[in-house]
Every structure is written in C-alpha cells, then in structure tokens.
Amino acid sequence: MTDFNYKKYSLEKLEEWMHDVLSCEETSPHEIYSTIRKVVQDQHNYHKEQSQKCLGLLELLSGHRPVKLECDKDDPSPECQGAWSDFWEQVDEDVKQDIQTNGYEWTPSTDKNVKHSQYYYEYNRNDPNRKAPMHHSV
Questions:
Q1: Which of 52, 72, 106, 126 is the 20 to 30 A CA-CA neighbour of 117?
Q2: Does one domain contain both 1 and 61?
Q3: Whether 19 and 40 share a structural domain
C-alpha cells in the first residue's frame, strides 16, 4: 500500500491547470493574474477570520474578555440558568419600580385637552354620528 502524497498531487494539478489556462486563446495574462490573486486573497481572508475567531475564544477562555452569554430558557447549563434568573430578577425590580412610581394600574392620560390628528378616530374621522362602514343591519 502506497502513501498518497497530497502535496505532489496538488502541485501536479496546479501545473496542469497552468498549462490549460495558458493554452486557452481567450484568456488574457491579466485574467490569469487576477484569478490567482483573488484565490490568494480569499484564502488569506478566510484564515484571518478563523484566526480572529480562535483568538477571541482564547481571550474568553483565558479570562481576558468578559463573557456575554446568549442563552434561552431551555439551555440547562448553570451559566444560562443563572443568566435567566438574573434577567427575571431585574424585570421584577423594574416592575416594582413602576408600581411605586405609577401605582398598580397604569393607564394612559385621560386628559381631554389632548389634540389628535384628524385621522385619530378610525371610522368616524371626527364625526361621532357617522355609521361604521362595516356596519350591517342584520
């Protein structure tokens, strides 16, 4: 059983490809150059993004960056369960503050002097005697 030499195989394919693209009459040197440059740039960008992702994870794992958990209520991990508990405790505090400020039943202002747009009312357009357009006398 022979070992497959991927490096040799890849370089042979590149050589074949170069012969092929150079033999093509419609292909300009500029197109060949641009294509090779694009492939190298794409590979560079891909590996740069992967490297940045790994670096970010290493920073989190090393404690050099604060962890922001993105959890849902069904995540059983202790971190996420704690985050959900903290969230609801904060909601409870906000509700308690609202109750202290506004009372148990918050209602919008009933000030009769509030000016509304002429289109504020739905069907009667400021004409309280107008019948509803969907009104059917059955």
A1: 106
A2: yes
A3: yes
